[in-house]
Specification:
Blueprint (H helix, E strand, L loop, with lengths): L2 E2 H4 L5 E10 L2 E4 L1 E2 L13 E5 L2 E11 L2 E6 L9 E6 L1 H25 L2 E7 L4 E7 L8 H14 L4 E7 H4 L19 E7 L3 E4 L14 E8 L4 E8 L2
Parallel strand pairs: 1-4
Antiparallel strand pairs: 2-3, 2-8, 3-7, 5-6, 5-8, 6-7, 9-10, 10-15, 11-12, 12-13, 14-15
The protein binds zinc ion.
């Protein structure tokens, strides 16, 4: 499998790498900074540079354990060295949104034992998360929730990652509340994302370093989504 540099350092915007395979407009690299769609986070876009030529990366997907970079046009690209560079503005907004979703899920788990059932980040600064609550949470709580989340974000919690054997992770309460159940049994090492004093969660996405980097956001809608489930919709405001 190619090396996935975004797991080590989500702030790395480019890397020197080597093309292993070109198949029509699809390219496989031996290491990459490009995040493929997954876990509710959209793919990165950007360019591959070879000599004086630039090739637009328009989509990135994980296919059979490989990260496949779809180019707008791979004519004139040849197997060999290349510089991979992501569109940082786009990625950073996804990192902010993604981290915000962790904060919301972590807080509501701590407060109510609520579980995130799914989440999605969109390309236009919006995101949503579905949270399953036990019965008995007053509706009035939801009107104060945005203020509570803002307060936590402003407390500036640090975010870090570590990888542990699956058996160890399964012993940590709360860490397996969503993602791990979807991971195939064959995956024996799990990456955990820790937001200090708030949450630790299995996740393979990209995150900011501290919650104040999430910046300005607001909740746009909180609505019922089936029995005991709320959908919280939000937007980054800059
Ligand atoms: Zn994550």
């Amino acid at each position: 499998m190619e090396e996935e540099l975004f797991l080590e350092n989500s702030y790395e915007t480019s890397c020197e790498t080597f093309i292993e395979e070109i198949n029509e407009n699809k390219v496989i690299l031996n290491q990459t900074v490009f995040y493929p769609t997954g876990g509710g986070q959209p793919f990165d876009t950007g360019i591959l540079k070879q000599g004086i030529d630039e090739f637009k990366v328009i989509k990135v997907k994980r296919e059979q354990d490989k990260i496949v970079h779809y180019l707008e046009d791979a004519t004139n690209l040849s197997v060999g060295e290349v510089t991979a560079q992501i569109n940082w503005d786009r990625r950073y907004r996804f990192m902010r949104c993604h981290t915000l979703l962790h904060v919301i899920a972590g807080h509501l788990y701590n407060k109510f034992g609520a579980l995130a059932t799914s989440s999605e980040i969109y390309e236009d600064n919006r995101a949503r998360i579905d949270i399953q609550f036990e019965e008995g949470i007053p509706e009035t709580y939801f009107s104060s929730m945005e203020q509570e989340i803002h307060k936590i974000v402003e407390e500036n919690h640090m975010i870090s990652t570590r990888s542990l054997p699956r058996k160890e992770v399964e012993k940590i309460p709360g860490s397996i509340k969503t993602v791990i159940n979807l991971l195939p049994k064959s995956i024996q090492t799990i990456r955990l994302v820790d937001i200090s004093e708030l949450d630790e969660q299995a996740c393979g996405g990209t995150h900011v370093k501290s919650t104040n980097e999430i910046g300005a956001f607001s909740f746009t809608k909180i609505k019922n989504k089936g029995k005991n489930t709320k959908r919280i919709e939000m937007i980054l405001n800059d």
